[in-house]
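Troubleshooting: if your tokenizer reports a length mismatch, compare your output against this known-good record of 185 residues.
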Amino acid sequence: MAAAEEAPAPVDRFDLNSKRVQDAFEDWGSKTTIGIVAGMIFGGLKEGRASAHWQPFLPSQAGSSTWNERQRVWRNVWEQRFVRVAGGTVSGGAKLGFFTSMYCGLQHALAIYRDVDDAFNTAIAASATAATLGLVLPGSLRWRLRTSSLGIVLGAVAGLPIGYIQTSLNKKAEELMKNAPSPSS
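Known-good structure output:
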């Protein structure tokens, strides 16, 4: 018994050097970046719109207030507005970026772990993300658990058809790419 037969090494689905994991990581990164930027735009616009209607007490233009006082008050108003819009931009980007990152990461991790890319990956990722959103909303623990369980159901109900459409479109795109003429001809 000079050389014992060795069993083939098990396939590591999460091998960081595999093409599939690298492609999933690249796709996750680009979608997370888009989510962060979209959240920043939305948060900034929301706070900018809200602060445009907010007018603090301003001294009247006539009589008792000096020009320097009016300038100081207007500078303070614009500083407060800028701080509010900047805070909304950062907060909105962090919130939407986190949930986009979680959803896309779960979807890719499930596709790699299950070794199949189907509608169930989307439904499970949507359910987990909606449940997490329900847990981070303000309120009592009972209210959070209730909204979390509702998020699980709504995530699955919304995620399954979206996943089916996404899977169908991906298959159709792959089919069109196979049938496309090569650029050299």
